[in-house]
Amino acid sequence: MSTRNLTAVEGLRFFLFLGIFVFHSVSRWLPIGWGGVQAFLVIGAYFLTSKYLKKEQSSIKIGNAIVLRIKRLYPAYAILIIVSIILVYFSSHQVNIDALWYLFFIQNFRCLFDGTWNSLEGCLGHFWYLGLDVWLFLLWVVIIRLVPKKYLRLAFVISLILGLLWRTSFIMLHPNKLSIAYVVPVGQLDCWSIGGLVALNTNGEGDNKHLTLIDFVVGMTGVVFLIGYNAIQHDCSIGEGYQLFHSASGYMKNPITGNIHFFIALMSAGILRYCLDTSRKHPILSSAPLVAFGGMTYELYCFHLPILALMRHFVNNPLLLIFVALLVTYAVSWLWCRFAMPVVNKKIK
Q1: pLDDT band at residue 6, thresholds of 50, 70 and 90?
Q2: Which of 1, 123, 127, 152 is most deeply buried (CB count within 10 A of its CB)?
Q3: How is the chain split into domains, by residue range?
Q4: Global pTM?
């Protein structure tokens, strides 16, 4: 796979982060901006599967793999949790024990017990995605290590169906605890599985042009259909039906619209295949600025929500808020990558 195609994926990653950023800034401007989470899952599963398919299964060490993953994720993650605990302490003079859910990457399972988030959600609520990443990564490494390669496709298809069934079942059976349907890692297993299937289908080259078109068209058609269906169900206009997707309460209570995650992941798979296609050029996605931004996507994601929460105290204009908060987020992320991470990596190593 050429460097050009890898850089195109980096550019794609930045656009996905930008969608999430705008959604968190002014959700009505991009109600389905949260779909970047599903796209990140597809991309992550693709690269993970591609990486381990090149290895002998017997050489894959599950414990080492998860430790390396957490070492990559934990430094910025832990810093933000500690800072949040300190800020809460100074404002309420109490230590927030809810932070323990985050410290051990089990925040996604809280909804199984009380169905709520906690007082740290304003700064750490976006870390539910990192909980997904850690647990789906662990499950995927186990599957790739234990399932014979000739059965991997079947295993991925079964896991895709399991994800759809989990989400659909909990939407129908527990409409008052919707978080269980999509926050618990199993509820996003279909999105992760699609990334694994892309890796199997492309054989590391991204040369399946017909699959690129099929994935994108089917995914986009599904998203458009569900927006229209949501509008009909709520007896409102298409625009209003689209706006309802900015909140889980506006679409997750219906088992049909609640599976828009699957179609977003399918559309993301088509775009990913396009980025990996060695016969195409990607002048925009492969441009140096976007590649630089994309290379810091994880840090940008970690820092953006606390910065947005802080900037809202000083900036009232939505457009100005997006510009200032994005600039500050980039500056903090660059400083972290340039100065803090080398020290952290040296200590961890």
Answers
A1: confident
A2: 127
A3: 31-280
A4: 0.95
**One-letter identity of residue 46:** Y
pLDDT, one tens digit per residue, over 76-98 is 999 999 888 887 788 777 777 77
What is the signed CA dihedral for 335, 76, 195, 183, rounded to 10 degrees?
-140
Torsion of CA 310, 311, 316, 321, to 10 degrees: -140
CA 244 to CA 131: how far, in whole Å? 26
Show the beta-strand stretches assigned E in the chain.
none
CA dist., res. 249 & res. 61, Å (int): 41
260 and 181 Cβ atoms separated by less than 8 Å: no
Work out the pLDDT band at 119, boundaries 50, 70, 90: low
Q: What does the alpha-carbon distance between residue 35 and residue 191 come to, in Å, rounded to a whole number?
A: 11
Q: Extract the tokens encoding 5.
A: 């195609």
Contact, 8 vs 294, CB < 8 A?
A: no
Q: Tell me the average pLDDT across 310-332.
A: 96
State the pLDDT at residue 60.
94
Q: How many CB atoms lie within 10 A of CB 97?
A: 9
* Token pair in block for residue 212: 């690129």
Instruction: Name residues whose C-beta falls within 8 Å of residue 338's C-beta, 6 or more positions apart in sequence.
Output: none
Residue reference for tokens 């997006």: 322
How is residue 291 written in tokens? 């590649």
Dig out the tokens for 41 from the structure: 């899952």
**CA proximity to 258, closest of 249, 266, 267:** 249
180 contacts 110 by C-beta, under 8 angstroms: no
Q: Are 44 and 196 in contact (CB under 8 A)?
A: no
Number of helices (H) and strands (E) in the chain: give both, helices first.
16, 0
The answer to whether the CB of 167 falls within 8 A of the CB of 241 is no
Give the pLDDT score at 1.
Answer: 46
